[in-house]
Amino acid sequence: MIKIGRIFIISDPESTLKRRYNQNKTPQKPGLFKKAWFLSICHSGNFDMKKLLKRYEILFVILLFLLSVPAEYYEIFSLLEDQTIFFRHLMRSDIINRKEMTFSYDKIALVTIDEAFFSEYGKSPLRRRDLAKIVTNLNRLGAKVICVDLLLDFPDAYGEDPILARALEQNNVIMASQALFDNNNRFVRINYPTRILRDVTGSGYVNLISSSSVSTFLGRVRIYPEITMREHEWPIAVQVVSEYLEIKPILQKGMLTMGSLSVPLNQFNDFYIDFSAIPEGHRFLHQFAGITAAEVLDISDLSEYEISELKVWFQDKIVIIGETFGLSNDWFDTPMGMLYGAEVVADTVNTLLKGAPLEPASLAVETGISFLFLFSIVLCSFMCTPWRQVLIAAILFTGFVFMCSLVYVHHGIVISMTYNLIAGFSAFFILSLSSYFREKKLRIAQHEEKENAERKRRAAQAESEAKSLFLANMSHEIRTPLNAIIGMSALLLESSLNEEQQDQAETVYSSSQSLLALLNDILDYSKIEAGMIELERIDFNLENVIRNVTDMMDAGAKGKGIELIHRNHRDVPLLLRGDSNRLRQIITNLVSNAIKFTETGEVMIRVTLENESDTHATLRFSVTDTGVGIPRDRMDRLFKSFSQTDSSTSRRYGGTGLGLAISKQLAELMGGEIAVESQASKGSTFWFTACFEKLPENHEVSPDTGRGFFLTPAEISPSKPFARNIRILLAEDNEINQKVALMVLEKFGLSADVVFNGKAAVERLGITPYDVVLMDVRMPEMDGVEATRVIRDPESGVLDPDIPIIAMTADAMKEDYERCIRAGMNDYLSKPINGAELLSTIKRHLKLEVREHKPEIRASVSECQVSEIFDKAEFLNRMGGNEALCEKFIPMFIENFQDRIQKLRTAIDENNLGQIIMEAHSIKGACANISAHRLRDVACQIELGGEEGDSVKAGSLMDKLEAEFDKFQEVVRDSGVQGLPCK
Q1: What residues form DSSP beta bridges with 413?
Q2: Tens digit of pLDDT for each residue in 834-860?
Q3: What pairing do the DSSP bridges indicate for beta strands 563-568 and 602-612?
Q4: 179 φψ region: left (φ > 0), alpha (ψ -120 to 50), beta (else)
Q5: What is the rounded distance in angstroms from the CA atom of residue 154 to the CA atom of residue 197?
Q6: Is the pTM of this model over 0.90?
Q7: Are 752 and 729 in contact (CB under 8 A)?
Q8: Are 566 and 546 in contact (CB under 8 A)?
Q9: 575-590 pLDDT, tens digit each
Q10: Model confidence over 801-815: pLDDT tens digits?
Q11: Which helix (DSSP H) or strand (DSSP E) does residue 149 occupy?
Q12: For residues 907 and 942, is the Cβ–Cβ distance under 8 A?
């Protein structure tokens, strides 16, 4: 015996010991094979001999089934077994063709003492002399055997026993009796009706009287050998059939033989009653084999014809006389419905006359089925989950019952179900309970392991968040001075410098750009490593992206005398949807490296179609150079973070080694891959693939300039970009950044007012009207995000809560951008500031520029009827011809209307239907009062949209409402109204 930790394993090879020990260190998910004895004992790695002994519940189950076989043999649960037989016989009577009348109505007749009889008889109970008349008359009508199923225990009738005895002596009559047993179920005697009747007729027992009910059966009849040793003391049905066949019954070797009839018996000498498969049970017996006793009580006055009709019923038949009414208390619930004692005797006689088709299964068959059921139950207890165990167990028990019932129904073989089902349920309960406790321990272990893993995950997540926060802070701190260095050096290059100063300024500018590129690479790498990179889906023209890269790289290539070429295969789709910025980043990385490592020759960018479907295309981008190439033994260093082919300190070419690592990650994010083909001194080809969504050929794509990080000196133009003065508010706490921003704006002919924090910006916007706000994010007292939320609040007191706000911040993470947009900012620019991008962004968000892009809304006033826009004559008439009052009222209307439009747009954005209806209704009324008919009509349509619950319809009409309002103001100005507010 070898001991490993607390696990005992006997005679196991060393390799097997290690493997099993490793398996036992970690709890496994429960399963069919995992729960085999050895693994289920050892799964927790905390095994001792007590746990081995706990697995003896399976041995207990085996013992339970072994005990079920003798329990079945001795019928410990005989009453329950009778119930299962009752159930199967019920199925049998339903499944077998019920129209087939298996009852021997040509051999058996019933004489019923029922309600109809007593209503005509006029008294109760039946007197013995009247029973004597019935027996005598049946004998005259030709009955072969007469069976009297009446216990005749009425005390007031004893004086008539001699009369009945004389009638019985003249006929072949068998009377019912009772078998009496003691407390130990041993036979004592037969209880006859009376002694005088016993002496003149045969008697058989139908009811068994004992202190225990285990001797009482309905669905079967027991033949007691100690009784049958006496003459005329067989069960009443056996005695009736033997008298009818005139053959003495023989009981031997588990069979009851009467001439050619052989009836199989079980171990207790029981034979099963084959209740007739006939429709509606006793009703059939009454209809085809029954006649009321009143018909044969007195036949002296009947004609010969009537006598002959009665003989048809009784000639050479077994006639059974019995009570068939409720007061007799002699009725039973059978598979054929409620049957009375006489009818049960009739069915028992019928069973014997057919040779008893129901046969008890042999002990060998019962034992085999028990062990098959045992094996299935044990197997079921090893199923994966408790619910599956219950489901399979239900299927198993149902299948067992169905199989036993099927054999009973179609082959007449009685297989015990009671003992197997009791043992099966007990076994399943024991095994399930044992499995539950084992699984509970296993789940606790798994839960602890899961909690440990969750703690580690949270720790790793916290570490990642701390790292991201550190990078964000470092990026902000580095970008802030870098913004000043790049901005000032770019401005310095435009000043009057001598040759030496020019060279120094260009060196500073170039170095700061390299530092910015390095900072961006580190940020990209950290985002990719943390899984925070998400690709955008932008419509773009591939030709523009490639041309943008070549335009940007062309100067560097020409400076080294290298030709930069790009070619697109004719099959390549140009209109695509995907992340064009990340695509440009990869191509720029590869082209930059190619130019860096190439001294003479060319660098070629080639794009080919890898494969495509109806909706997507996978493109292959390759960058081929004629440079130094890469030795084969150093290629494995490529695409790894901070790795280069030449890592020596005296290497000729600089770089961090992050570019290719980032490019590899980005290519994989775009559903592709990246690789290199190279030979030393002969050049290299770097290629990658990426998958994009295809766009229709006529799809319009916005131009994609893809500019660099800052203006080159040539890009700074002093030309005035706006036709009017633009008032700009700059919120920036860093004085150097203030200077840079002001000087950049100055180059474009713009100026700005400066405040040092968000609180000051809010206060200034409450006093002075501005066109746009340039907002830093991190500022003291009140940062840019909080300030934006205050500005957007209509109750803040600022003059224009919807003023365009553009974030200018050194924060460069995606979550920073999302935080700004959620706060209500219109756009986001990352420092160092790109002058051209700043100018483009300001233009895009000024209302003047937006309106210039909506010619279809701002239709010329001359195209409309002036009176429809503003009917001055009607309004003047309404004001009593007072022009001064009109000119005072119109500016108030315009000012109020602007506020109402803003509230209406807010209600539409919030999908507040009640507010939409109220604001639109208010605008409609005001427009009607001032005779602005077209404005009134649009407001009416918006109100109708709100009443219909269609906020989308209301929102779609807002541009039209504002356009009509602009036309209204133009018409009012043209009409000469003074004192109007600024447009």
Answers
A1: 359
A2: 777 788 888 888 854 433 333 333 333
A3: parallel
A4: beta
A5: 14
A6: no
A7: yes
A8: yes
A9: 999 988 889 889 988 9
A10: 989 999 987 655 666
A11: strand 145-149
A12: no
